[in-house]
Design a protein that fits this description.
- The chain is of the alpha+beta class and 104 residues long.
- The protein has one domain: Double Stranded RNA Binding Domain (2-Layer Sandwich).
- It contains two helices and four strands.
- The chain has a four-stranded mixed β-sheet.
- Helix 1 runs parallel beside helix 2.
- The two termini are 24 Å apart.
- The mean pLDDT is 91.
- Keywords: Ribonucleoprotein, Ribosomal protein.
Length: 104
């Protein structure tokens, strides 16, 4: 599973942030790693300098082998919290996605 990290121009996407995001995502999605070719992480600050309680958006797009991509979004006031929120949602989505594939 390859993790691709992207940020908008309002979030500084340095190596430490990328490593932190990769650690969080890997810990949540590790059991699916053999079934996923890539996970794309997109971080954006929707309110810019105005701030807000949940203005950081983390979009995760997972690409299952031989299937269509699945996407979730997590919102929070801090980057790490937004990544954790999106990772938890992706974990639940992939549980459902691969569970349905097993029953068909």
């Amino acid at each position: 599973m390859h993790i691709q990290f992207n940020t908008d121009n309002r979030i500084t996407g340095d190596q430490s942030l990328a490593a932190q995001a990769e650690d969080i995502i890997t810990s949540r999605l590790d059991r699916f790693s053999s079934r996923l070719t890539r996970v794309e992480v997109h971080l954006a600050d929707v309110n810019g300098p105005k701030g807000g309680s949940d203005d950081i958006v983390c979009t995760l797009e997972a690409r299952p082998e031989g299937g269509k991509p699945v996407t979730v979004k997590g919102n929070a006031g801090q980057v790490e919290s937004a990544i954790r929120d999106a990772s938890d949602k992706m974990q639940a989505l992939l549980d459902t996605h691969f569970g349905k594939m097993r029953t068909h």
